[in-house]
Amino acid sequence: MSLLEIRNLQVKYGAITALKGVSISVEPGQIVTMIGANGAGKSTLLRAVSGLIKACAGNVVFEGVDITNLPAHRVVALGISHAPEGRMIFANLSVRENLEMGAYPRANKGEIGHDLERVFSLFPRLKERFKQSGGTLSGGEQQMLAIGRAMMARPRMLLLDEPSLGIGPILVKAIFETIVEINRELGMTILLVEQNAHQALKIAQYGYVLETGHIALEGSAGDIARNEQIRKAYLGEA
């Protein structure tokens, strides 16, 4: 059984249909990436999964349970965490307080300290800055904080929306290496939305190409990376 299955999902913003019957599946333990141009509907799909926006048709099924249009806090409690585009950290809270906010829904608070150390082992820069306010961090550090905060809920599935956006190349490389480590060492399933198609296809096992609200192509990440049309459209190759 797929960990996450999205069936014929439709989402509208007023008269505009952002998702036009999208269907994808994510197997346990995979990194699955979704690439596409701005406005294709990638972020909309993640927001619909995590309960931040309503679907008007279709289904989102997680671990065999239909979670379509559940409120976001219930989606988190079921095991899905979302690091959103733009990071959305709490600028006036410290790094530590931001991370502790990620653990807010958890009933068992006894292991929060252990989970903080796990995040700090993945992102040592956060440990160095744990007393700083989130708003004083660089863009890359804020992205680390957003991912770490999502991990504090102990999810089985992590939704990552444009983790490389607005970040310098050195930190982009570090963040993608850490995404692989989270998947490999912790066994966490990851659905990655990313415009940096080169990096995303390099670390994913499976991929989808979203164009104007529908799936234009799917397959192994390697097959998509070798597809001539994709290379021209998304990988900048003539």
Characterization of this structure:
Helices cover 37% and strands 26% of the residues. It has a 6-stranded mixed β-sheet, sandwiched between helices. A 4-stranded antiparallel β-sheet has the order 2-1-4-5, with helices on one face. α3 packs parallel to α6 (139-151). The chain is an alpha/beta fold and 238 residues long.
Which residues sit in consecutive blocks of at least 5 with pLDDT less than 50?
Answer: none
Largest sheet: 6 strands, mixed
CATH homologous superfamily placement: P-loop containing nucleotide triphosphate hydrolases
Give the end-to-end Cα distance, rounded to a whole number of Å: 40 Å
Question: Which CATH class applies here?
Answer: Alpha Beta
Number of strands: 10
Q: Please state the overall shape, judged from the principal axes of the Cα atoms.
A: globular
CATH fold name, please? Rossmann fold
Please compute the radius of gyration using only Cα atoms: 17 Å
The fraction of residues in strands falls at 25-35%
Q: How many helices does DSSP assign? A: 10
Computed structural class:
alpha/beta
In short:
With 238 residues, this protein is of the alpha/beta class. The protein has helices at 42-49, 72-78, 95-102, 112-122, 124-128, 139-151, 169-186, 197-203, 221-226, 228-233; strands spanning 4-13, 16-26, 31-35, 57-62, 65-66, 80-83, 157-161, 189-193, 206-211, 214-220.
List keywords for this structure.
238 residues; alpha/beta; Rossmann fold; six-stranded mixed sheet; 10 strands; 37% helix; globular
SSE inventory with pairings:
Elements: E1 4-13, E2 16-26, E3 31-35, H1 42-49, E4 57-62, E5 65-66, H2 72-78, E6 80-83, H3 95-102, H4 112-122, H5 124-128, H6 139-151, E7 157-161, H7 169-186, E8 189-193, H8 197-203, E9 206-211, E10 214-220, H9 221-226, H10 228-233
Parallel strand pairs: 3-8, 3-9, 6-7, 7-8
Antiparallel strand pairs: 1-2, 1-4, 4-5, 9-10
Helix pairs in contact: 3-6
